[in-house]
C-alpha cells in the first residue's frame, strides 16, 4: 500500500513524498490494457477482438506510464484533500523526478516527490483602526464651472461645415491611433474617436492644425499636446488612468474626419432643456447648480479611485506575508503550459508577487467579512452594463423591451463574462468595506494640487 509523507523544506514550502509499490498500479495497468483491446480498431481484427498481447506490444509502455503517473496523482490528491491543505497552486514535481525511468517489462516500486507552497497566516496592520488616510475632495471653482458651461454652449450650438481649420473655435471630429516612436501604428493599440475644440490644444499644436482639412493628420505625445487641466479628461476618454505618468507619454496619430465651426448657444431655457431634458430647469442659477453638482460628483469619483489605489498599494506593501519565493519562481518556470526561462521569470516575478499578495489579502478580507455576490446583483449589473453599451451607441433600449431579459440570460451563461462581472462587484464591495475599516479624513484641494499628488505605484523586488 502506498505511503505519503509531508515535510517542511522552507518558508511556506513543503515536500510531499509518495512511496508507490507496484501492487498499487499493476492491476489498473492490466485493466487499462484490456479496455484498450476492446476499443482498439486494428486492421485484420474485429473491434473488441484484438489480443491483449498485441495491444501491450504496440501501446503498453505508453499505457504503463500513464497508469503509474495517474495512480501517483490520485494518491497526491487524496493526501491534499485529507489534510485540507491550503496551497497556492497545483503541486509541481521535485527536480529529482526528472531521473525516474519507467519499464513495463520490469515493474518497480516508485518514489515520487512533489513540492507545494502553502498559504500563510498573516495579520493586516493597516486595518488595526489606528490609521488615518486622506480623501482629497476637489473644490469646484467658478473657473471650472465656467469652462464646463462654455463646453456645453459649444455642444448645444449650431454647427457649420467649413473646408479647413481657421481658428480656435473650430470643432474637430478625430480618430486617435496609438503609435510607436517611429510613427508606426501599434497592433492592438488604442484607437478611439473623439470630438475636440481647437482651443483645447496647446498653442503650438493649434498653429500646426491651422489649414488642416478632412483626412489630414498630425502626430504627438499627449503631455505635449494638452494642458494640465484638460489632460486628465483626454486620458479618461482614451480609457487611460489620469494618474499614470507613463500614460501621459504615449504617442498618437490624430486624423481629422470632419471640420466644424460652432456658434455658441445662448444660456436660456431652450439650451437647458437640450442639455438636461425633462428636468424642468428654468433659470441660469438652476442650470449652474445642476452642472456644479455633476462636476463635483465626477471629481468625487476620481478622488475615491485615488483613495482605493492608495489603499491597494499600502495593503500590498505594508502587510507582512511570508512568500515562498524560490518555489514560486520554479512554479512559474515549470508549472504552466509552457516553460519559462529563469530570465523571463525574474522579469515577471515582481508583478506576479504584487498580484499574489493582493489575492491573499483580498481573499482573507472577503472571507472574514462574509462578502458575497447574489444572482440578483449579477443580473442587475449585467443589465446596467448592457444598457451602457447601447447608450454609448446612441440607441438606448427600454428596460422592458422583449429581447432584454433573454439577452442578459445569454450573457450570464458566458462564464468569462460572469466571472469578470462577479470580480468587479465583489471588489467594489471590498473597497466599501475597507473604507469602513479605516479613519478617512476629508481634505479639500484644488484641481491643480490634486493632479500633482504623487501616485502610489510600486512593485516588489
Description:
The chain is α+β, with helices and mostly antiparallel strands and 461 residues long. It folds into three domains: 3-117, Alpha-Beta Plaits; 125-131 and 295-451, Trigger factor, domain 2 (Orthogonal Bundle); 158-263, Roll (Chitinase A, domain 3). The chain is 47% helix and 17% strand. The protein contains 14 helices and eleven strands. The chain has helices at 22-39, 52-83, 142-156, 203-209, 231-237, 245-248, 269-275, 284-318, 325-334, 342-368, 375-392, 404-412, 415-437, 447-451; strands spanning 3-10, 13-20, 92-93, 110-117, 132-138, 158-160, 170-179, 191-197, 217-221, 251-263, 439-445. The strands form three sheets. Strands 6, 7, 8, 9 and 10 form a five-stranded antiparallel beta sheet that branches. A four-stranded antiparallel beta sheet has the order 1-2-4-3, with helices on both faces. The chain has a two-stranded parallel sheet with strand order 5-11. A hairpin with a 2-residue loop joins strand 1 (3-10) and strand 2 (13-20). Helix 1 crosses helix 2 and helix 8 (284-318) packs across helix 10. It starts with a strand and ends in a 10-residue tail after the last helix. The model has no long low-confidence stretch (mean pLDDT 90).
